[in-house]
Design a protein that fits this description.
7 helices, mainly alpha, globular, about 210 residues
């Protein structure tokens, strides 16, 4: 198993910091009355928002972190890494094409949809189908356990994204909350994947 480099751990850890730190600081900079339960993350970076650069930096940092993590997560299958990178690239587009005060831009909406979708599905495709045979039962059973863990993570992420999508097509009373839950979970899963990969490679190594 290839060892995931330490810089991938830094980028994976940076993703939730950029996202949650970005929206926390950006919300604090908004006028009284901003409601994070009913208002989206994109509203914090929208054209005309107060100090919109804060959330824009957060989104750009998040996207760059996902791209860097995808590059360094060498133990994952190529399809999973490609989807993680796609999610990072789409997040950069979200930051580059902000929401308009009178409504969403098409580019922003499509990029956000691609980002949420790719970042929800990638764990299911990240576990290699073939693993090197091992006489050690613990090592032999580990790939199956990791695959089940990855599928469970993808299922939870898809459920959160589905809840957010449902809010988009209803009254949207919890649209901000559901988006934050989905986005935060998607930002944290790459960190978990890197930690698991580094732990497994450490156990497989000498000594």
């Amino acid at each position: 198993m290839s060892t995931v480099p330490r810089w991938a751990l830094l980028s994976a850890g940076g993703a939730p910091l950029f996202l949650v730190g970005g929206w926390t600081l950006a919300q604090a900079a908004q006028p009284d009355g901003f409601d994070p339960v009913r208002q989206t993350i994109s509203a914090l970076a929208a054209t005309g928002a107060d100090h919109r650069w804060i959330m824009t930096v957060g989104l750009v940092g998040l996207g760059l972190c996902h791209l860097t993590t995808a590059l360094g997560l060498v133990s994952a299958a190529p399809a999973g890494r490609a989807l993680l990178a796609l999610g990072g690239l789409a997040t950069l587009v979200v930051g580059a094409f902000p929401q308009h005060p009178t409504g969403d831009s098409t580019t922003h909406a499509v990029a956000a949809g691609v980002a949420f979708g790719a970042l929800a599905v990638w764990p299911a495709l990240a576990v290699p189908r073939r693993a090197r045979p091992s006489l050690d039962r613990e090592h032999r059973d580990a790939p199956a356990f990791v695959r089940r863990l990855a599928l469970a993570a993808a299922a939870v992420l898809l459920a959160l994204v589905g809840w957010f999508a449902a809010e988009l097509f209803t009254d949207g009373a919890w649209i901000g909350l559901t988006e934050r839950l989905a986005a935060a979970a998607e930002a944290g899963v790459p960190l978990a994947a890197v930690l698991v990969s580094r732990r497994r490679s450490g156990r497989s190594g000498p000594g």
